[in-house]
């Protein structure tokens, strides 16, 4: 169901292998109504294709698509990630103006794990 309501962007290598993707989907409230928030999801880049700008390009495409939704009341784009496992992705999100709005340490041992919630204000233009 999440894929049916969202918009997804992919990078394909040699016309058949998906090597990167990013998408947006509406965040729904507990009563099933679409909220004013959208979720950035399915962000992934194959290890052989990292550090080439694919992730930032696809995320920027997703942000542009989400900004079109502001006409219909969309205000923020949200994402959730793990700080320790996704450090390079966190730096990318912060370069793209996502702001940490909540952190929660969920584990200390055997390896620390901190969940980060990010928001991007869609009403603020990137120009």
Automatic annotation (TrEMBL):
CDD domains: NAT_SF. GO terms for molecular function: acyltransferase activity, transferring groups other than amino-acyl groups. Pfam families: Acetyltransf_1. SUPFAM superfamilies: Acyl-CoA N-acyltransferases (Nat) (SSF55729). It comes from the Eukaryota. Coiled coil: none annotated. Residues 1-121 form the N-acetyltransferase domain. This is N-acetyltransferase domain-containing protein.
